[in-house]
């Protein structure tokens, strides 16, 4: 995707263009993202926040609905507990998606976990609507 040595503005531009291209190519019904988690590093939190904002902008411009989930909700949907470790999330994503190896790096596992959480939430809400 991007190189750490690139200026932030260039990295954000590449992220925006790639996400826009992916949305145009695959035409998703929705975009699911994890709510921002504040880490101990202000720089890391800011960089993730910028990238997340770019993703939200690309989805909004494509008129694609955006759904946001807190990290604990994502972990609970995938592992059954809201305080699961990265390794537990990786293991369950591998198990649920029947992957031969754990998704790596752990950011990939996190993204897949958010997708699983959204799918689970959407199916649960549909089932609830059907009962009403």
UniProtKB/TrEMBL annotation:
Gene3D superfamilies: Ribonuclease H-like superfamily/Ribonuclease H. Keywords: Cytoplasm, DNA damage, DNA recombination, DNA repair, DNA-binding, Endonuclease, Hydrolase, Magnesium, Metal-binding, Nuclease. It catalyses: Endonucleolytic cleavage at a junction such as a reciprocal single-stranded crossover between two homologous DNA duplexes (Holliday junction). One of its GO terms (molecular function) is metal ion binding. InterPro entries: RNaseH-like_sf, RNaseH_sf, X-over_junc_endoDNase_Mg_BS, X-over_junc_endoDNase_RuvC. Pfam families: RuvC. It is an enzyme of class 3 (hydrolase). It comes from the Bacteria. GO terms for biological process: DNA recombination; DNA repair. Its EC number is 3.1.21.10. The keyword Nuclease applies. NCBIfam families: ruvC. Belongs to the RuvC family. This is Crossover junction endodeoxyribonuclease RuvC.
């Amino acid at each position: 995707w991007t190189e750490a040595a690139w200026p932030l503005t260039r990295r954000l531009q590449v992220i925006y263009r790639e996400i826009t291209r992916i949305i145009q190519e695959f035409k998703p019904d929705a975009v699911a993202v994890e709510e921002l988690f504040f880490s101990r590093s202000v720089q890391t939190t800011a960089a993730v926040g910028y990238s997340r904002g770019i993703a939200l902008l690309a989805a909004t411009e494509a008129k694609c609905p955006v759904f946001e989930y807190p990290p604990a909700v994502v972990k609970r949907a995938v592992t059954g507990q809201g305080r699961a470790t990265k390794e537990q999330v990786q293991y369950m994503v591998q198990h649920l998606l029947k992957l031969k190896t754990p998704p790596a790096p752990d950011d990939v596992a996190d993204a897949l976990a958010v997708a699983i959480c959204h799918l689970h939430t959407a199916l649960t809400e549909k089932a609830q609507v059907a009962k009403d």
